[in-house]
Amino acid sequence: MNDNSIYSQIKEVKKYALENKVPIMVDRGIDFMTRFIADHQIKNILEIGTAIGYSAIMMALSSPDVKITTIEREQDRYMEAVKNIKKFNLEDRITLIFNDAFDVDIEGGFDLIFLDAAKGQNIRFFEKFEKNLNESGFIITDNMDFHGLIHQEEESMSRNLRGLIRKIKEYEEFLKNNDKYDVSFLPIGDGIAVASKK
Q1: pTM attached to this predicted model
Q2: Helix, strand, or coil here: 21?
Q3: Alpha-carbon Rg of the chain, whole angstroms?
Q4: In sequence order, which residues have a C-beta less than 8 Å from that of residue 172 and are 6 or more positions away?
Q5: N or C: lower Cβ tally within 10 Å for the chain?
Q6: How far apart are CA 71 and CA 110, in angstroms?
Q7: DSSP 25
Q8: Phi, psi at residue 10, to the nearest 5°?
Q9: Which residue from 136, 133, 107 is spatially nearest to 41, judged by alpha carbons?
Q10: Run of H or E residues at 23
């Protein structure tokens, strides 16, 4: 697959996400991820929340050495991800798991764990999968700003949205107070947190 055809395939995936209201990582966020993978020579990644496979594909394309295991629980999105990963001929480097992440037991260690699923469950995801983090690995979380809503007055929000925003704030406090990790909060894309073992 040449660069032009890769570029047009990526545009197709992004167009599908937009038309079908599937949340995918914003451009600045994915640019950060792909650079981070290269800079830290990341070889294997566990992603919680595949959606339609966009971020897994972009991370795999960042280096031919990268292997990704990614978990998705929504069937329509999983099926679309299977299709997309096939289009890019990445089936040998991206392993898709169709299940709820809390029902999956993953063996082995990863250089990077990427949390990009249900935002209200980030603490539980972190606690469940940190055992799979290699000694010098990183846990990266997207949507820490949640479309800028983290910084807005909660009174104008629906009850559900207020609850979700509070959970994201609780997760931020959980990271800040976790004495096993050094954590950076980066104002990139939709807000990214990077945790590394001390």
Answers
A1: 0.92
A2: coil
A3: 16
A4: 144, 185, 193
A5: C
A6: 14
A7: -
A8: -60, -45
A9: 136
A10: none
